[in-house]
Design goal:
This protein has 178 residues and is mainly alpha-helical. The protein is built from eight helices and no strands.
Length: 178
Amino acid sequence: MAANESFKSLNLGATGRHAAAQIARQRNAQGLSYVALSNRLEELGWPLPVLALRRIEAGARRVTVDDLFALAVALGVSPFELLTRESENTPAGTGVPPGVTTAEVLAWARNETGLSTDERLDYWSQAADRAMAEIEEWEQFEATAKNGAARKLASDRVRKLEDQLALAVKRLEALNDG
């Protein structure tokens, strides 16, 4: 099939469109041709011909759960990476309520929270509490560390935890205001 030949797109939801784009992005980032990816899938025992891969990326073929898992293995990424958005400026996924962030979708996928406002408030409150407790522990470690490398490790960890705390506080404020 010619590279410039187009396919009739299906009416995919946000998640289906994103999965198609992510599969293409991952394949291109790895410098894989359709043939190379098809060969990898064949080796995994889930053959998808080149035409099927082209149609998936064009949004003209739905991705089954089996396809998704095999493609994730072949591309060396998690299936969830193929399903979730990279930016808050794109839809979170089919059926996900408006205003739910990527971080919240990922936490939901790990079964750490639900998607209701109350569940997300609880999640971020617990995240803030954990971050504050860990900051205190690492600051104590930093104060008693005997060498520079240990102090730097502690200092770097505190900075990362402070960023996590700031995100939790920001989300708590946004959810309380919304």
